Amino acid sequence: MSEKIDPSQANNGPPTLRAMGFGELLDTTFSLYRAHFWSFLGIASGYFIAMGIGVSICFFDDSAGRAEMITIWVPTIATIFGVSLFVVNGLVFATAQAYLGKSIRMGVVLGRAGRQFFRSFVGSLIYAVLAVLFTALLILPLSGILLAVRNNESLTLIFGLVALLFIGGIVICFVTYWCFFVAAILIEERSMWIGLRRRRELIGRTWWQVIGTMFAIFLLSSAIDFVFRFAFGSLLTLVGFVEIEEVMSEAIRWIVVWEHFPIARAEFSLSYMLTYVINLGVGTFTLPIWVIGCTLLYFDQRIRKEGFDIEMMATYQEGNSDARAI
User: Fold this and answer.
1) Residue ranges in the chain modelled with pLDDT below 50
2) Please, what is the Cα angle at 231 between 226 and 236, to 5 degrees?
3) Rounded Cα–Cα distance for residues 29 and 20 (Å)
4) CA 188, CA 210: separation in Å to the nearest integer?
5) Count of CA atoms in the C-beta half-sphere (13 A) of 239
6) What pLDDT score was predicted for residue 95?
7) Can you give the pLDDT at residue 87?
8) Which residues fall within 8 angstroms of residue 242, CB to CB, at 6 or more apart?
9) How many helices (H) and strands (E) does the chain have?
10) What is the rounded CA–CA span in Å between residue 62 and residue 264?
11) What is the structure's pLDDT at 207?
């Protein structure tokens, strides 16, 4: 197992592991991020670079035909997906190192993320395809029902909100399972197929509690993201770069990757580029929050379901005995 204690660190004392309530999980999330801020931000900067690659495609000739644009977009999207996944892998393993009382060494973190990348990529692609197909199957009948009741505006609004929450819950379910899969192959060094089954072992009958916690983590991360975007957007408004309506429109966009993405050079402007860079920077800053929270939730389930804290204490005592022998 990859969680064994290094004898050179045995005298530092065993990591304090225990099951956490939601409040303690959040406190630990922010404590780890604050204590290892530059390490986490350094890893997350790869996300900023990946999105920069996406922006660069806008500088291709606007007159390119459909075939040429497909040739451009397909490898670009694949590259963005791969780099973003590599960043998440690094953040997950860095969180594990910090939580288990070890120092975050960039070489070790990036090496583990690289070795497990293929398994993570294929498994994540499977989850992504299943999530898209399942969501599409839900949207089609919901759209039909929504069209059927569209004459009654209040009923349409209520149904639309319920449908949105339902679909959002399904998406969070897939994200939860995916996060546990990534943690299993990165931290436990499991095979891809065993990693795909780990979510059943760790979540089990407590799925509603785990998914609810995951939803709260994403909601908090999104709220922090919104506050920072709105704050920076307000500063741009004060200096006259953008209008307040544009700030409000951009602040409520939860995903900055494809929303309002320019497809022609004519759509570029100084205000757009400045707003995009700020939003991308805020997204890079908040990315580690939900990754750390999800990884801690994974450890929390291992402690509750498998007695991981007891296992680690025994491993520490064994490592400490080896250190004395040396």
Assistant:
1) 1-2, 5-14, 254-263, 322-326
2) 125
3) 11
4) 20
5) 9
6) 95
7) 94
8) 233, 236, 271, 275
9) 11, 0
10) 6
11) 83
